[in-house]
Amino acid sequence: MNKLEQLRAMTTVVADTGDLEAITRHKPTDATTNPSLLLKAAASPEFADEVAALRASQGTVADKVDRFAVSVGAKISQIIPGVISTEVSARLSFDTEATITKAEELIGLYGDAGIGRDRVLIKVAATWEGIRAAETLEQRGIHCNATLIFSFAQARACADAGVFLISPFVGRITDWYTANTELVIEGPADDPGVQSVTRIYNYFKDHGYNTVVMGASFRNTAQVEALAGCDRLTVSPDLLKQLEDDESNLPRCLSDSGDRSAPPETLSQSDFLLANNQDPMVSEKLSDGIRRFVADQEKLEALLNR
Q1: Residue partners of 243: CB distance under 8 A and separation at least 6
Q2: Exactly one of 123, 241, 285, 299 is catalytic; which is it?
Q3: pTM for the complete prediction?
Q4: Which CATH superfamily is domain 3-304 in?
Q5: Average pLDDT over the chain, rounded to an integer
């Protein structure tokens, strides 16, 4: 078996793209989108008809973006057997009630398209406000994908809140350390992004949390391979192709021992905020991630409002 086939035997493989052809070719179980990927999809011939129809339609530009996101997600859902992740506007990252409202609107649009809520994950930024929104949505039967995870505190808070799935960003963590420190990364064991996901995975298993860990934002296949055995991994088409072309052995790196211990006390808001504030990587990358998604959302709005 090639490495992609071997990976599928131990980890749920998720495609990090809105490219329908790539999803069809690589046959992932699930797929994820975000404002950056939707912007790329909007510029592709695959969605030219949808873009043209939305430009000619009535409604606010924000509504058009939501309808486009669901249109892309609905098409992807016809290809994959699992779930599609669709993100609420990054502008709502610090507004709990608005995030809840937007998530329910997106689920309603998916319902109108014939896609049940059991096949959708609503992506929210893992700010304190976003996690509180996800907690409420989970209680209402809407599963969430907490994204832009850069810290252990974010992961802990999501598990405490009963969030269905989290997406720790491997590559962006590594990017920060490469740019801002003298850390020498000689292999995956030295990679702070890989170390972060490994710590979260082991902590969740050791304490019996049900929250799914899905490594994301990979820069190379070595990072992906170092997390083989993680619950899920969302990987770009380019890296999926590299794994598919590699016939060498892929060993399991993460596994659940089955041993359990009681979880610690729930993380408080003040402890959460302090932990993130004290780590410059976390505070910088979380802010940067939100800014980037807002910027791409604005570009998508402009494209759909011509």
Answers
A1: 2, 3, 4, 7, 221, 224, 225, 235
A2: 123
A3: 0.96
A4: Aldolase class I (3.20.20.70)
A5: 97
